[in-house]
Amino acid sequence: MASSLSAAVAAVAAATRPIKSRAGIKTVLSLAPRFQSLRRLSLFARPQPLRPNPSLSIRCFSALSPQLKSTLDTVVNSHKVLLFMKGTKDFPQCGFSNTVVQILKSLNVPFETMNILENETLRQGLKEYSSWPTFPQLYIDGEFFGGCDITVEAYKNGQLQELIEKAMCS
């Protein structure tokens, strides 16, 4: 049985490639009845689609509680430049975080950092707060600016410097 099954699988694999000889066509045709039985077996083996169960209630979990949102609003709006990152500005624990820290240091801009590795609730809540799934997350003048790639691109084309200068003057 195992050898006929492996022959059938091999024939299916061969059937996906062009058949160049009459002998190959005969082999595929001779195995066709076996394919039909395999097809019937696979129909029975397929999982049935899930049907809604009205007796079950589904709760959506949000890491961004109203209290956390309020706290984040306060923190973000109280700093001109704020970086939520993995690690600290003196000891970044992620290459992307380190890149953004080095960019901000090169601009001689005062900035604050928050280590998201210290609090899992903060980490998950920030993803919802900013609608951005990764870290670091840079906030300028109370607004989410972006992650590492956006910051690097804006630094290269001069937009980051302009935005930070405006934020420092406001």
UniProtKB/TrEMBL annotation:
<dbReference type="GO" id="GO:0046872">
    <property type="term" value="F:metal ion binding"/>
</dbReference>
<keyword id="KW-0001">2Fe-2S</keyword>
<keyword id="KW-0479">Metal-binding</keyword>
<dbReference type="Pfam" id="PF00462">
    <property type="entry name" value="Glutaredoxin"/>
</dbReference>
<keyword id="KW-0411">Iron-sulfur</keyword>
<comment type="similarity">
    <text>Belongs to the glutaredoxin family. CGFS subfamily.</text>
</comment>
<protein>
    <recommendedName>
        <fullName>Glutaredoxin domain-containing protein</fullName>
    </recommendedName>
</protein>
<comment type="function">
    <text>May only reduce GSH-thiol disulfides, but not protein disulfides.</text>
</comment>
<keyword id="KW-0408">Iron</keyword>
<feature type="domain" description="Glutaredoxin">
    <location>
        <begin position="81"/>
        <end position="144"/>
    </location>
</feature>
<keyword id="KW-0676">Redox-active center</keyword>
<dbReference type="InterPro" id="IPR002109">
    <property type="entry name" value="Glutaredoxin"/>
</dbReference>
<dbReference type="InterPro" id="IPR004480">
    <property type="entry name" value="Monothiol_GRX-rel"/>
</dbReference>
<dbReference type="InterPro" id="IPR036249">
    <property type="entry name" value="Thioredoxin-like_sf"/>
</dbReference>
<dbReference type="GO" id="GO:0051537">
    <property type="term" value="F:2 iron, 2 sulfur cluster binding"/>
</dbReference>
<dbReference type="InterPro" id="IPR033658">
    <property type="entry name" value="GRX_PICOT-like"/>
</dbReference>
